[in-house]
Write a structure and sequence with these properties.
Radius of gyration: 26 Å
Number of helices: 17
Number of strands: 14
CATH class of the largest domain: Alpha Beta
Strand order of the largest sheet: 1-8-2-7-6-3-5-4
CATH superfamily of the largest domain: P-loop containing nucleotide triphosphate hydrolases
Structural class: alpha/beta
Shape: globular
Strand content: 5-15%
Oligomer: single chain
Helix content: 25-40%
Largest sheet: 8 strands, mixed
CATH architecture of the largest domain: 3-Layer(aba) Sandwich
Length: 577
């Protein structure tokens, strides 16, 4: 009925009078080699992998899948899939989930969370009574988006097929008929988005009477999208002695409140920081610019990216219209590109993602529909053409690169209209030990009156229209990616006398995109000498400089004309654009 609340026709069953089939939940038997680990060894493992635990009687981490007690068929399947050893979240999370207890797992995207709940689900399902006619799933996985639902279904297919465990994928934007037929044939695992799941429950086309293993994946994202009422309605339909696992990339108070309401005496594992944090394997570059400059900057950036051997790139926009416009322009410029967003049919989205995943189309333009759940391991570049509505979305967008232990680079265009989010962005950058431009820091310090701020970083430096030093593009002269000298065109490189990027030599965002050593021509911070932002290969920042911002008379500015980044020559204070 129009205007009714989601799940308004669902009634919570009276579980006190229901005849429930007994279930088994604890399947974990500690392997002798795991039991033999000393407290010091366990503590060292936790320290190495930045693992923090909360709760009592939490089992020790494992080093191999065999130590988890998985049957030989599952171990062979894992080997065939290339899963040679558990990731940190799997090493600690598998024993916790297999013990039958309620679990909260906090880890960044791309860390292996899916395996941490699908593998225990298969063990759980194998120990239960087989499904009868009209029975619903034993395992229910609730996810925020159809892309993530399809990703989880793919993993469930690969792991479950050798064990004859069936799954169905239930999500909106696709015909209901095929999904209902999958449910009617019987599926031990159901992966669902909240909206379509509620539809089927209200229609009486499925039930959760047999569900004993409940998973919420990307719980923080579901709450961000306003799905809390649906989550609570669904959970009320499941027997109270269920096992519940909640996985999330962040741990805001809303997710914690949901866990307190529906998980009993849960144990928790955190990988890395519990506050909002980005993958440290990603180099983050934030370009503070005007709105009208973004198209020109994107064009120049893509010219350099497409010269790279590994150039798979995803570009994020805030609106569907802008996504369509950019994809058309990029194709007009001669690069293969497609876009996906909520108005595309599921068939078209699946085709575009397949073309992108298999490398037949290196550039994907997308709205936030792809910021989570896009399982493409070799994306090397993420470009935030539009800054997202929240820093949480920023972290998940850039998390599309740097997956499975690889490195990646994220570029972000940040305009004055985004200034209210500068403080959160600076915190994310600093936590990941990334460069923070003075202009961005200024917005973070005084977001409320950014329009009245005057540029404090004029003056000095190199010879043309560069901000932060010589050269012809922003962030100093030199190549945007490669090792070129200070007289060359390009951005993010070392330029003649640039203070934000160390002078002349092979600098690319401090020390070279693939350079062996940092550029050095003076003792400036963010650049030469004992410089900052890294001498490492792959463009990853390694350390921060020791000297103050500025080299010679130039302080983070320069150029004889107005800088693209707001700097003016001779130190003249000028208003921001």
């Amino acid at each position: 009925m129009k205007g009714s609340q989601p799940g308004g026709r669902l009634r919570k069953p009276d579980w006190s009078s229901a005849q429930l089939i007994p279930i088994t939940k604890n399947f974990y038997r500690e392997h002798p080699s795991v039991a033999a680990k000393s407290p010091a060894e366990v503590a060292e493992f936790h320290k190495t992998h930045e693992i923090a635990l909360l709760g009592d009687n939490i089992p020790n981490p494992i080093n191999t899948f065999l130590e988890a007690g998985l049957n030989p068929v599952m171990v062979q399947t894992l080997n065939r899939m290339g899963w040679t050893a558990p990731t940190p979240i799997q090493a600690q999370g598998l024993p916790m989930a297999l013990s039958g207890r309620d679990v909260v797992g906090i880890a960044q995207t791309g860390s292996g969370k899916t395996g941490s709940f699908i593998l225990p689900a298969l063990v759980h399902i194998a120990a239960q009574e087989p499904l009868g006619r009209g029975d619903g799933p034993i395992c229910l996985v609730v996810v925020p988006t159809r892309e993530l639902a399809q990703q989880v279904a793919q993993v469930a297919n690969e792991l479950g097929r050798p064990m004859n465990v069936r799954n169905c994928c239930v999500y909106g934007g696709a015909p209901k008929g095929p999904q209902l037929r999958d449910l009617e044939r019987g599926a031990e695992i159901c992966i669902a988005t909240p909206g379509r799941l509620i539809d089927f429950l209200e229609m009486g086309k499925m039930n959760l009477r047999r569900c004993t293993y409940l998973v919420f994946d990307e719980a923080d994202r579901m709450l961000d999208m306003g799905f809390e009422p649906q989550i609570r309605k669904v959970t009320d339909q499941i027997r109270p002695d269920r096992q519940v696992l909640m996985w999330s990339a962040t741990w805001p108070k809303e997710v914690k409140s949901l866990a307190e309401d529906y998980l009993r005496e849960y144990i928790q594992v955190n990988i890395g920081a519990t506050q909002l944090s980005a993958n440290h394997m990603i180099m983050q570059i934030v370009d503070v610019c005007a709105e009208y400059e973004k198209e020109m900057k994107l064009e120049a950036l893509l010219q350099d990216i497409m010269k790279e051997k590994q150039n798979k790139t995803i570009i994020f926009t805030e609106t569907k219209k802008k996504s369509d416009e950019l994809a058309r322009k990029i194709k007009h410029d001669g690069y293969p590109a497609r876009c996906i967003h909520g108005d595309k049919t599921q068939q078209e989205r699946d085709w575009v993602l397949s073309e992108f995943k298999h490398g037949r189309m290196p550039i994907l333009v997308a709205t936030d529909v792809a910021s989570r759940g896009l399982d493409v391991s070799d994306i090397k570049f993420v470009i935030n053409y539009d800054y997202p509505q929240s820093s949480e979305d920023y972290v998940h967008r850039i998390g599309r690169t740097g997956r499975a232990g690889q490195t990646g680079t994220a570029y972000t265009f940040f305009t004055p209209q985004n200034s209210k989010q500068a403080k959160d962005l600076v915190e994310v950058l600093r936590e990941a030990q990334q460069a923070v431009s003075p202009k961005l820091q200024m917005y973070a310090d005084s977001a409320r009156d950014y329009g009245r701020q005057r540029n404090r970083w004029g003056g000095g430096g190199g010879g043309r229209s560069s901000g932060y030093g010589g050269g012809d593009r922003s962030y100093g002269g030199g190549s945007r990616f490669g090792s070129q000298n200070g007289s060359s065109r390009g951005s993010y490189g070392g330029g003649g006398g640039s203070s934000y990027r160390g002078g002349g030599g092979a600098s690319s965002y401090g020390g070279g995109y693939k350079a062996a050593a940092p550029a050095s021509n003076g003792a400036s911070a963010y650049g030469g000498g004992a410089s900052s932002f890294g001498a490492a290969s792959n463009g990853l920042p390694t350390s921060f400089g020791k000297s103050a911002a500025g080299s010679g008379d130039a302080q983070n500015g320069g150029g004889a004309r107005q800088s693209r980044w707001g700097g003016y020559s001779n130190g003249a204070a000028q208003p921001d654009r």
